[in-house]
Amino acid sequence: MSEIDYERLADSIAQKLRLLPPADKMIWGAKACAEYLGLSDRHFGDRVSKSYGFPEPIELPTESGKRGHARWYAIDIQAWAAKHKRTAS
User: Fold this and answer.
1) Residue 30: pLDDT band with limits 50, 70, 90
2) Is 9 left (phi over 0), alpha (psi -120 to 50) or beta?
3) From residue 13, how far is each of 9, 19, 47, 87 by CA, in Å?
4) Please, where are the H alpha helices in 1-89?
5) What is the helix (H) or strand (E) element at residue 60, kind and residue range?
6) Long-range contacts of 33-42 (CB under 8 A, 24+ apart)
7) Residue 88 binned pLDDT confidence (cut-offs 50, 70, 90)
8) What is the rounded distance in angstroms from the CA atom of residue 79 to the CA atom of residue 70?
9) For the chain, what is the mean pLDDT?
10) Which residues is 28 bridged to in the sheet?
11) What dihedral angle (degrees, nearest 10) is formed by the CA atoms of 88, 72, 37, 89?
């Protein structure tokens, strides 16, 4: 078994993190939204994403000019979830 080069591993992780967009520009698909909210993909797609007050999706065009799958800004999903936090009664 070979020894782990932690410095090289840390450099590799740092490089991948630099490739991520800033948090306010991160775009999630339905699967990522469902995972963040702790829901099944189906429940998210059938109910939550269509519920009143849920953030409007971004529909990026495809090569054919049609609209692609819905996407959401991660920050909007996080803000929506935070609005539903229960307060102590």
Assistant:
1) very high
2) alpha
3) 6, 10, 36, 38
4) 6-19, 30-37, 41-46, 74-83
5) strand 58-61
6) 33/72, 33/77, 36/74, 36/77, 36/78, 36/81, 37/77, 37/81
7) low
8) 18
9) 88
10) 72
11) 10
Rg (CA), the chain: 18
What pLDDT is attached to residue 80?
96
**The whole model's pTM is what?**
0.72
**Single-letter residue type at 24:** D
**For residue 62, which amino acid is it?**
T
The pLDDT of residue 85: 81
